[in-house]
């Protein structure tokens, strides 16, 4: 039986995207673009509301009363874990829309409706990925996400950087997809099934054969590319720098979250047997450590803020992997909580970047001098967001990292937690460089930076969440715990 | 009411936020919000008290909490614990806060940072009430540190005066020493008992003591660590040095924070964690002796001081010593009762002195005199407070001080006889120095005619609180009327209330003390009112003693020497090590290496996708090789 509610959010997103294209077609180009943004925003909000109704606070009759909704022979199952990932992805999409509006005001393009539609398609792919229970479904969702992302990254046709970013992302993405597919095909060959839960049964308790090892490593390689885990991270700085900034923001949160959703399902359900897990968990620990070290060290040498955020996001992927490989109720809760916290801190900073660059036309850190005086709110957002990313108390990033590293220590990965802590200190240097410019240095051009009410509200919400969750993480922790009990 | 008691710390916190964020530009509005929040708190506390009093005596403990942080395996909570002890403290804090805030409107009306002042007062009230309603050690510690912060901010409110700036730093640093012990105690509790909750800790400790899981010495150790905090905050010997200097703050602040409420937090905390303290005679003995010694020690200093606020500050030290002594001697009810009465008359004394300072712009008692002609209300209310602190019946201080001396007399603490006589002698000294202050300031002829001519009675919003407090200073003691003992029925440790002696027994016991107190007043009158003896000649005759007292036993100098010579000497060694080895070598070196590595690693980022693809392929190959072979 197909329960429509299992893919209700995706339906909202895809439906809105099609409506957008139609509206644009009918209205032509002469009118203002506001309508398009409101449509896209409302569509995403609708998807968010449908999440709430899937979660049990039922308003519509389509909701299922008993158990998580599923469709297509159970290939899509929207359980509490999927709902949490979808929540993060949809919130990220919503924030990206706010950035996009600002971005295209200065970098005007003819094809805004198309951009928004592709963004929503991409979000739909990411959202579907979170509930995929089968590897072909998972792969298709992933490709919906990434192929749309290629388009988004290269969207500024007349901009060399954007073209370069899109091309690099496409070629390397295709390469990594090939690895992933090859890995999947081996898994299918070994077990005769594509359903993730049956993979575990098919593999049983058998030890790791070289064939299986190859399959697992290929899958890790393919997926690690999406979350930019070292050494599969090298595309990240080039693409993040060249892509339109809202796309960079979207990639750094929504795409990464979707990648972790895939990792969690595939590895902690399909490949969770003792013999296999002992190998990939160890491997992951090495990759996580490598990401933390490389990401943080290379970030030290950056002077472009988008590139800096790219390296920072590599390090962040390493931190999140720390909780992921620890696994268990504790580890998964930590991952979910951190992703939620990362969403607000990172996207708050990215919105600030978009707003600043739309005024100054520059992404150089040196041009952030005196930002505090030009817009106090942006100063606060940079301070709170970046310090939270660095994991400074009392901001949410601190409690998030506390849980991540705590989980790692409990699972015996004390050394990894130590690496994480030591390099968090290193990260403080480059995050504070930006903060120092914004708060301490004198502005070359003291003209104030204007924002509309929505941007102000969104920035305030980001700050509010980042501060409050640091003091009082319990509400989100409770939701994350409930989501984590799906697997553990 | 009780289920809404979380609003009691909540409302001043909200008032603080509103003032800081929105109304800072509007003086009257800011003060109004602050006072309104405090009034609401007061009425809510009354409601809580009333509801609690209606309950059956055995059911007078209501507690609820929310999860604040989850750090497996344990959780931190914020909560509210309402019991008679807490309800008593809530009434004291909210009432004194309310009166002081109303008074401040008059006292501070010319100040430029009027709104900031009121925001600090609100923050203080919120923190203090958070501490009072706390149901666990972590929360009480948080409130504890927050009141410390407010105290720092308010002592240094006139930061442009170097004395104020120094005093606030001194208060903060001295308090840190005590708080360090407190923090260690709290951490020990968390580690040993896996919980911070008062009730649970009490259960575990009682259980552990009865089946000998924990030795009483171990519990005494924890209690003494906690007591370090009380010594700092309640300014007991040897950490008493910060409180007299704290008088650099605005006088209403001295009344609220450094006399009536915050400094009593140490006493409250000891009462709150009394299970730990009463587990072993060792901790009780230390507490009693520290308190008893401070009471006497501070009273002797107060005899030779010239600054009106400093005299009151030393008298605060001395009275806090009484409370601590009482708790140590087992007089739980007596100690808390003295805290309550003391809050009334000491707030009154400080606000009265504030009224004098407001009229004269001077704090030296030798420049005052004959003020009763100019300031009738202030004089009258000050007289009431002086009688109350001296312990003349039927004023409040008599009942509470007598209860303390009685509990010390009947105590099992080693040396309780000595402590009793120390307490009695302190009562004599208290009467002497308080009446010295009163006679010199309010009676006789004006000494500084210029100042005297300009002296005036304070406005109604200042004298109003004085009158209210004067009535309280008269009546609060009656709550524990001999033979009836409403108060001891309400606030007591364990299930059996400490009985209240009948009036005959009471007078039978207390007549020697009373006689000494009257003698103290008479002596003081002989020196400073009738002037039959000359104080100057006495000071000349016993010059070394006089100098010793006047210079507060040279404790500030001694600590100054310790810090300057010993601590700074050690520090300079560490400084050299830090500068040369840690900073130049390790820190800069690490930074340099990281910078260079970052630069070098960035070179791997060639921008050529063929390189990137090659890395991906190589990584897969290498990993496969490592895993398989």
Task: Give the H and E element order of chain A.
Answer: HHEEHHHHHHHHHHHHHHHHH
Ends apart, CA distance between termini of chain A: 27 Å
How much helicity do the residues of chain A have? over 70%
Oligomer: heterodimer
How do the SSEs of chain B run, as a string of H and E? Answer: HHEEHHHHHHHHHHHHHHHHHHHHHHHH
Derived structural class of chain B: mainly alpha
List low-confidence stretches of chain A. Answer: 57-64
Strand count of chain A: 2
> Main sheet of chain A: which strands, in order across?
1-2
Please give the number of β-strands of chain B.
Answer: 2
Which percent band covers the strand fraction of chain B?
under 5%
Compute the gyration radius of chain B: what is it? Answer: 28 Å
* Mean pLDDT rating of chain A: 90
Read across the widest sheet of chain B, the strand sequence of neighbours is 1-2
Verbal overview:
The complex is a heterodimer of chains A (488) and B (629). Chain A has 488 residues and is mainly α. Chain A is 76% helix and 1% strand. Chain A has helices at residues 8-27, 34-54, 80-106, 112-131, 135-153, 160-191, 196-203, 210-226, 235-242, 245-270, 274-299, 305-326, 328-360, 371-374, 376-390, 396-410, 414-439, 453-471, 474-484; strands spanning 69-71, 76-78. A two-stranded antiparallel ribbon of chain A has the order 1-2. In chain A, strand 1 and strand 2 (76-78) form a beta hairpin. Chain A starts with 7 loop residues before the first helix and ends with a helix. Mean pLDDT of chain A is 90; it is low at 57-64. Chain B has 629 residues and is mainly α. Chain B has 26 helices and two strands. Chain B has helices spanning 7-23, 27-54, 84-107, 114-133, 137-155, 162-193, 198-210, 216-233, 242-245, 251-260, 265-272, 274-277, 281-302, 308-328, 332-360, 376-390, 396-409, 416-442, 449-454, 460-475, 486-490, 503-528, 535-541, 543-550, 555-602, 609-628; strands at 62-71, 74-82. Chain B has a two-stranded antiparallel ribbon with strand order 1-2. In chain B, helix 8 runs antiparallel to helix 11, helix 13 (281-302) packs parallel to helix 18 (416-442) and helix 14 packs across helix 17 (396-409). The mean pLDDT of chain B is 88. The chains are: A mainly alpha (488), B mainly alpha (629). At the A-B interface, helix 6, helix 8, helix 9, helix 11 and helix 16 of A face strand 1, helix 25 and helix 26 of B.
